[in-house]
User: What shape does this take?
Amino acid sequence: MQACSRRGFLSTGVMAVAGGSMMSNPTAQAQQKGLIAAKKPVFVATWNFGKPANEASLRRYTEGGSLLDAIEEGIRLTEADKSNASVGAGGKPAANGKVQLDACIMNGPGSKAGSVGGIEDIMHPISVARAVMEKTPHVMLVGEGARAFAIDQGFAPANLLTPEEHDAWKTWKKENQSLEVGEDNHDTIALVGLDGEGNLAGGCSTSGLAYKLPGRVGDSPILGSGLYVDNEIGAAGATGVGENVMRFCGSFMVVEYMRQGLHPEDACAETIRRIARLDGRPIEELHINFIAVDKQGRFGAAGTGKGFPYAVTYPGYSQVLQSKALSQRAIGIEGGNAPIDQQP
Ligand code: GLY
Assistant: This one.
């Protein structure tokens, strides 16, 4: 992670805390939180690996790509990173030892979308999702049909299971075989962006829960759950235990809270509170996290337990921040949004 001083953080573009108390004014609200992009395009992505992904997105956009090209490029970077055991190649397999990937992409203008679920042997499901969107009359393809479509479109089949993950899976089969749903086995890249014309787009990609039942599909390729883009309002994405997002249309809910006027960070937090109320379990047990950006360039994130790192990038600024954290004790908000290398 890049070191960054407090001075550097303030000077690179995130607007400093403003003194005004016009909380009904969205810009004043965002300035008070310090969470508004000073320049466009702005990209917001989940986890530490979201930062290089965002930077790839910004590069692609700067080189003349569309916002959608930029989103796809950022996610492709993460999918190709074999050291990342939760997205793309190198992802942990399902219980049968096969890596099964989920992804979706959505473009704000026209609300166009494409998605693949449980696709095997294809390194870049985000690009297959885009091909579903652009080259078929459908929105979602799954399993063998998705794989056959990808190969037909020229995607080369590849073995996505690395020797390390193969060994880890063999050990799991021999010693464990439980399906643990915890902090470390569900990281997803969700990446959302806003350009200078006020258009929004987003994508989401994951290998899903480690050692899941073969055929299990999580929230990530489900529009409205792992990702949602509304070109009038904003975009949101999710990471965490998909079962605790997809029962509630989590990303759609975040966007709807933004429509009601909430700052993206508050919209993410309110979504988690509402899911926790409906689910009934202690909030820490849900392992869910959201990112969001709105049409004004305000951004934010919230997660259960200690929260989670998320990345924000725009011209002259790229940083990993800590999200708001919601715990049962407070059912409220603790900490968040200092650059992550300065968190206590
Ligand atoms: N959020 C990723 C999954 O549950 O599959």
